[in-house]
C-alpha cells in the first residue's frame, strides 16, 4: 500500500497521468454459481471422479441462522439449501473462486 501511494504521488508530482482501477471482491465467495463453476472446471480438464467430488461438495449444503432473543428463548428457522457460493474457511474455496473468475 505504501509503494502504491508513493508511486501515485510521484506521478502526480511529475504531472503524469495517473489511473487507478479497484475491484471490490467483498462477499465474492458468496456469489459463485455452482453450475457455472462446474462447467468451468470441466472446461479446464477436471472431469470424472474429481469433478463429481467437487460437485457433491458444493451441492446440497444447508445453513441456518439461530437468533437468541432472551435467555432460554431462541428462534431457529428451518435449514435452507445454499444454491450459490463456496464455503468460507475451506482450503479448496480460494482455488475454486480463482478458477471461477479466471476469464
Automatic annotation (TrEMBL):
Top-level taxonomic group: Eukaryota
InterPro entries: RT_dom
Domain Reverse transcriptase, chain residue ranges per copy: 1-103
Protein name per Swiss-Prot or TrEMBL: Reverse transcriptase domain-containing protein
Organism the protein comes from: Graphocephala atropunctata
